[in-house]
Amino acid sequence: MASQFGAFTASELYCPKCARAQRVRERLLLILPDGELHEYLCSGCGNSLGQRKTARPGSAFSIPPRPPPGRPTPRGPVPRRPRGLLS
Q1: DSSP, residue by residue, the chain
Q2: 8: confidence class by pLDDT, cuts 50, 70, 90
Q3: Taking the model in full, what pTM does it have?
Q4: Would you kindly state where each structural domain of the chain is located, as residue ranges?
Q5: Residue 50 contacts by C-beta under 8 Å, 6 or more apart in sequence?
Q6: What is the distance between the alpha carbons of residues 11 and 22, in angstroms, rounded to a whole number?
């Protein structure tokens, strides 16, 4: 059977400081190579109520490869030689 739900996000969690279920805010803590780490904060008192790690399929956040050392990479259009002239 195929999965009906991809991921859940909490909208309310029990806060021990407020002694009741409160709406939560989600804050991004870290960007990891295999996903992201989020924290749930109570909207009433700001207390941390939990964390959630989202998995990232593949490598969506990747650093582009560096050019090989040696000649600098050109910054803009390459100048062209004028036509019709012999050199």
Answers
A1: ---S-S----SEEEETTTTEEEEEEEEEEEEETTEEEEEEEETTT--EEEEEEEE-SS-SS-PPPPPPSSSPPP-SPPPPPPTT---
A2: confident
A3: 0.57
A4: 24-58
A5: 10, 13, 39, 40
A6: 8
